[in-house]
Amino acid sequence: MSQQAVSARKRQMFSWGLALALSAGLSLASAQRESTLVIGGDFSDLITLDPGASYEFSGSLVAGNLYDTLVIYEGNDLKTLKPRLASSWTVTPTASGSRITFKLRDAKFSTGRTVTAADVIYSLTRVIALKTPSSFLLTDVANITAKSLSAPDAKTVVMDIPKTANPNIVLALLTFNVAGVIDSTEAKAHEKAGDFGTAWLKDHSAGSGPFMLNRWDRSAQVALDVNPNAFRKSPNIKRVILRYMAESAAQQSSLNSGEIDVAWNYTPDAFKAAQSNPKLRALKAETFSLSYLGMNSAKGSPFEDARVREAVRYAIDQDGMIDSLLQGLGRKTQTIVPIGLAGSDPKIYYPYNIARAKELLKAAGKANGFSVDFLVSTGSCSGGVPCQDLAAKVQSDLAKIGIKANIKQMVNSELYTTYRAQKATLIQADWSPDYPDADGNGTPLSDYAAKSLAWRNSWNNAAAGKLAQTAAIESNAAKRLAQYGQLTALLAKDGPFAILYQPYKPIVTQTGIQGFNRNANGDVQFEKISKK
Amino acid sequence: MLTYILRRLALMVLVLWGVTLGAFLISHALPSDPAAAAMGNNAREEQLADFRERNGLNKPLATQYVIYMGQLLRGDMGTSLRTQSGIVSDLRAFFPATLELTLVAVVFALLIGLPLGVIAALWQGRPPDLLARTFALLGGATPVYWLAILALTLFHERLGWLPGPGRLDVYSLPPPTHTGLVLIDSLLAHDTAVFWDGLRHLILPALVLGAYSAALLTRMTRSALLEVLSQDYIRTARSKGLTPSRVLGKHAVRNAALPVLTVLGSLFGSLLTGAVLTETIFSWPGIGGYATTSAISLDFPAVMGVTLIAGLAYSVVNLLVDLAYGFFDPRISFS
Amino acid sequence: MTAALTSESGTGSAVWRRFRRNSGAMIGLVLLVALLLIAVLGPFFVGSPSAQDLAARLSPPSSTHLLGTDQLGRDVLTRVVSGSRISLGIGVSVMLASLLVGSAAGLIAGLLGGWWDEVIMRVTDVFLAFPSLILAMAISAALGPSLTNVMIAVALVSWPTYARLIRAQVLALREREFVEAARALGSSQSRVAFRHLLPNSLAPLLVQGSFDVGNAILTAAGLGFIGFGAQPPTPEWGAMVSETRNYIAQAPWASSAPALAILITVLAFNLLGDGLRDVFDPRKGV
Question: Mutating which of B30, B32, B41 best tests the A interface, going by the most A Cβ atoms within 10 A?
Fold first, then answer.
């Protein structure tokens, strides 16, 4: 055989092998395709998958499918607490406050081990010890310490909370991933220098949720595989891939080409186009977020006079903002408790009225308007609208009553540093409650002493603070509603905020995707999804 | 030769030390608070204080620098404030993607820029030259992010010829990591499907990233060749009856290689800059995106890590370029 | 990019004659003059670049809006025209600042030599080893995003080129007769520098300078694109491309217009730079 013939044969064999390899890859791929759900989105906020440490939207989204909490809100019903790892629970008053007793159901971790009371206690105490970004929910809101928890037997967890905490709020925040239950044996096996396994849990999972982590390629994708031991079974989807696509344009082209099944960050205009596209399904998911302007009410600030703050509320063209910039991806509301939570107030206190706004400014001695720095975040604001577009709209609205707002775009970190230092005179920001309860907004937005939003805007109103504190721990539902009615009215009249809108989260999927639902907390139950 | 390399290495260490000092001063002169950046909007004051304490942010500046340099000498770049993991492991995760993209972009730039430059010089003043020069001018003036958006819209979305953002198709499972370079790792795993997939994903971003460099190389090759071709010994060679292609092969290319090499050295710097923008548009999981997110979240240990690795890459490439001078031009001696 | 050029490029009129014959250079010059006219006079002919008309948002080019409108219903042509002042302003001031700083450093290094030279050259090494965009991002993050800070950041990464250029010129010229003669006649260091060395380095500085204006505009627009630059609603071109890129499917004109404006401006300066180099150094180029 000549040299040439040999090399020709080699070439042929190579191309045969290549074809084989390619076709094998393809058939594998098409089988995978039907049971794989691919979500494209901006997941750049994902820094850890440890349920106790994750406090970002993407982290919560993933952790909610890897781990189970004791109790949960199922689907869109965020008012009725449902069992998850706890099959039942009771709240009993004690001398020092109240006691919640949880009975655990039979459940197994992805590791094969049984979920016990010791795992629950380990998971909560490690969060308190680690002082993670979300730990304040347990320490400051629920007011618990490691000593508050005990396990009379392997299936019972007892939690003692003091009078300063409302047991209903404690139960509500236990639905958040900060209370996700970890396999303590597994975590301890990976502990390094007393870190409660947090370094390992950053990119590994040891939970009882319907999925477990396959691998996380940082800034590329997160791949979850179905957890065979889970009690929440995923009948159709065997693998979920969260694909990093920061650009909305990239998500649009990938959804159109069928590369992804779900797009997480559409702009309002692209969303509108998707609504009329028969190949796509456009979902307007509800949220409890509020997009608002914060007006610093400190002495010497142009917003010191309550009438100036009212003037701003009259001058904001909410309808124009929602109809054109947001393309309907927002709801008009003007009080501090979002629509959907008990205690919210649908009343429109401030119909758009330039003349009235000018009168108020004149009455406050600022007939000629004033100039003010307007702090705005870079990137995308809630509802998918770029923050700078929103800011430009607010700027032009305020210009109509003589207020010259000079936009200063800042990265979030700097923005919040300035805001926290009470140095923001006028700011555009978003707020989402940490737990689906009116108190998630009531205390931070009204109580100066809570050192949150009211404090940041130097708004110190003793009556509002008192009302917020009372309403937070009020156990009578009717009384509580009345208290929140008073509080929201007080803030609408005098408060340091001008609510811009309550956003919807735009999500676009292929029409073949069934059962995709994102609730107002931002949770998506991957196991309920199927793909055609 | 050896003393030359040693001297250069010593200088490199000095330069890199300067880079750490500069980066440290800039990042620590920040008026903003990294603790607030890391702990989120709703964090309480006590949490912020605790974070500063844990990360040594409340120590005096000089102390922090000494601690940082001490760690650095032990090969530890510190901990990222944002991801709370080691910078070294972060860089190890993100650098290979950028390295692969940059290397392929350099290959593209060479494949396009060198022939175009040679063609332009040989047909000086005629249509091929005009075309090449137009390419060089446009390539040097187009904003890279705009080119990226255009390329994605046209070749991915409209024509469907090439895959969209990312390093691999969603359904291609990444090969086991050895080098972090998809092309090499997939071959090591004998996974040709993933290799082709990776290559296809590289084409658009690498072409976009390499366009500026290709333009620069075209210009440099052209002018270097023209200068060499106008010199006496080439004229002599030509008058002795050597064909243009032989002249080109024997003398011109060898001599024109020097200025081209110089450009190649400086390309790595501009490529890294381009990578920051290109990676954003192509959702490329590289060091450019990592640097941007780190800068946005005031994660200065991470920014310093990126700066240092970029400075190191730049210095090493330039040392190699200088050494290559000797290969192409025996007149240069390293004393 | 600019090899050491010498000063014997002929008299002014000879230079201009060569320049006029160079078609690329002439195209560049014409483009530049047009851009300058637009930058100086344009804003008087168009309305406010931040006037919004939400009812007419994202509308395609028409007789009322020659280049269409953006996502806030602002006229794209108006914004591009108003933005020309900003981009040209950034480009020229960055070039001047880095030229001044760089030349001073280069002169000191070249003239004083010794430790001065060593230290200054190592400092330029450090700045060259810095990834420029990351340095600019860090500075912009540190000082807060604004046009001024963008200019500072870009100037910081471009001055070392001038320092090296001038130093090389000084070293080459120092030994030449006319400088030696001036020294022998008792001229002081600074006199030698300003009367003899600097003027003789003018040609390469001009060439490098015109390329750098283009580079500065590109870098500044890149910073604007990733959000470290001008504040909205400032019509900075890079920021405009960035702000409108999410609407590329609905309104491609809104991001194309500022991108093309960047391209044309940079092109004009590069053509000019090419032309100047050919003119000053006839051995190279066409």
Answer: B41
